[in-house]
Design brief:
Blueprint: E1 2-5, E2 8-11, H1 22-26, E3 29-37, E4 40-41, H2 44-57, H3 66-79, E5 85-92, E6 110-115, H4 122-127, E7 129-133, H5 154-165, E8 170-174, E9 180-183, E10 187-192, E11 195-198, H6 209-220, E12 225-227, H7 232-236, E13 240-245, E14 249-256, E15 259-260, H8 268-283
Parallel strand pairs: 7-8, 7-14, 11-12
Antiparallel strand pairs: 1-2, 1-6, 3-4, 3-5, 5-6, 8-9, 10-11, 10-13, 13-14, 14-15
The structure holds 3-[O-phosphonopyridoxyl]--amino-benzoic acid (PXG).
């Protein structure tokens, strides 16, 4: 597998960047996770927009245009002969002297990795996942905006560790107001009496591209959608629950904090949206 780093392709084992890169030293950088299905890259323009917006928010100038980066991503997929792939784009602040000051860096690095990803065992997509609310709250939006997809994922990793400690594969994270925010790498949806509900962006969440696609698909299919502040009580008493993310796609949740959600089996709305989603990714480019 070849990896692109700032203008050149390297074998996976040779793909390296400086230990002085502030991406490594401070998590100073941004990234995207993107999927391609049958050679079609799902919503590439939206991923690039989010990447460039994240970079703008941390005053990082990506040293190529969105069009140039799109071309590099396509070239990397082609070189690796990949049609169904997970694409990781990373932009670091670049190597510099020690000390936080981003002005003491030069050469932001642009990295494109194309590979496969299997986040959860296939049977969980059939039977549903169990999640647990963790004590680590999602980053306060006034401290580090969850809208920025930065290289500093410790907030989410701390939550993931708590979930694993509790015997679950995913964590439900609340925001600073105690409302439901999102999971460590996925957005959350509920179905209550036929209405699809998901936390609004001002709950302090990442604006997931899969989230937006699911909202669109539901509306087009005549399913009412509400972006509402949600509580854990809403999760416990929902008829259905599922998570969305590029890596996880759409995965049903059947238990939260020991409470069985709905029938304890993936529900009809979740199944329907999964079908519509997999049809969409195959047809859209
Ligand atoms: N919330 C957070 C905090 C995320 O990191 C999503 C929601 C879903 O967004 P998209 O645009 O993908 O629908 C993400 C993105 C992983 C992993 O290995 C997950 C993400 C990113 C990188 C790695 O689980 N999720």
């Amino acid at each position: 597998m070849k990896v692109y780093i700032s203008g050149k392709f390297y074998d996976k084992a040779e793909a390296k960047i400086s230990v002085y890169d502030h991406g490594l030293l401070y998590g100073d950088g941004v990234f995207e996770g993107i999927r391609s299905y049958g050679g079609k890259i799902f919503r590439l323009q939206q991923h690039l927009k989010r990447l460039y917006d994240s970079a703008k928010a941390i005053q990082l100038v990506i040293p190529m245009t969105q069009e140039e980066l799109a071309a590099v991503i396509r070239q990397t997929l082609e070189l690796n002969g990949l049609k169904d792939a997970y694409i990781r784009v990373v932009v670091t602040r670049g190597a510099g002297s020690l000390g936080l000051d981003p002005r003491k860096t030069s050469d932001p690095q642009v990295i494109v990795i194309t590979d496969h990803i299997q986040l959860y065992p296939p049977e969980l997509y059939e039977n549903g996942l169990e999640i647990v609310t963790v004590s680590t709250i999602r980053n306060h939006p006034n401290a580090l905006s969850p809208r920025i997809k930065s290289l500093n994922y410790l907030n989410n990793i701390l939550a993931k560790l708590e979930a694993i400690e509790a015997g679950c594969l995913e964590a439900l994270m609340l925001n600073h107001k105690g409302e439901v925010a999102e999971c460590t790498g996925d957005n959350i949806f509920l179905v209550t009496r036929g209405t699809l509900r998901t936390p609004p962006l001002d709950a302090g969440i990442l604006e997931g591209i899969t989230r937006n696609a699911v909202i669109e698909l539901a509306k087009r299919d005549g399913i009412p959608v509400r972006e509402d502040a949600l509580t854990r009580h809403d999760v416990y008493t929902a008829d259905e629950c599922f998570l969305t993310g590029t890596a996880a796609e759409i995965i049903p949740v059947v238990k939260c904090d020991g409470r069985v959600i709905g029938t304890g089996k993936p529900g009809p709305v979740t199944r329907r949206l999964r079908e519509l989603f997999f049809a969409l990714v195959r047809e859209e480019e």
